[in-house]
């Protein structure tokens, strides 16, 4: 099973690394990081780079497409070449997935029209401009299209996907392997639950 994760300048690291750590343990999985050119690709902060071992043009098909989000995704929505590549991959996938604002790139490729989808809470209006209906669920399955909400939800999405591809026991074994047992110290992980002071601090740009 070939899993392709496209990288682009300005991706969010956890959008890639979280689901990668889950999906790489799927029996028979081969994970390929691809980009417009081989070599290091910088994340949205610019301090971290992941290495693309293949070019997008060299990828003919895949079983799972996983599109990460990040600050760069909002610039990439107007790149018709990238949208065409996503459509070409989607034509042969068993699963087409996204994390965070990666769903904007699926939307820009025309894959979310008439579907329910999720994304980072800050991107809801832009997501719906592509014909999707935003839902605040953490992971949304619509046929073979799977979207995950912001950043950390990519781990949830990958585990849910493993359960569908293999079985629940395999997914639970992988969850145990990565010791994914969330016990957050604060209940501020969604816009609906975050205190007003936390929302104001985030919006101020100081964090």
Automatic annotation (TrEMBL):
<dbReference type="GO" id="GO:0016829">
    <property type="term" value="F:lyase activity"/>
</dbReference>
<protein>
    <submittedName>
        <fullName>DJ-1/PfpI family protein</fullName>
        <ecNumber>4.2.1.-</ecNumber>
    </submittedName>
</protein>
<feature type="domain" description="DJ-1/PfpI">
    <location>
        <begin position="1"/>
        <end position="163"/>
    </location>
</feature>
<keyword id="KW-0456">Lyase</keyword>
<dbReference type="InterPro" id="IPR052158">
    <property type="entry name" value="INH-QAR"/>
</dbReference>
<dbReference type="Pfam" id="PF01965">
    <property type="entry name" value="DJ-1_PfpI"/>
</dbReference>
<dbReference type="InterPro" id="IPR029062">
    <property type="entry name" value="Class_I_gatase-like"/>
</dbReference>
<dbReference type="InterPro" id="IPR002818">
    <property type="entry name" value="DJ-1/PfpI"/>
</dbReference>
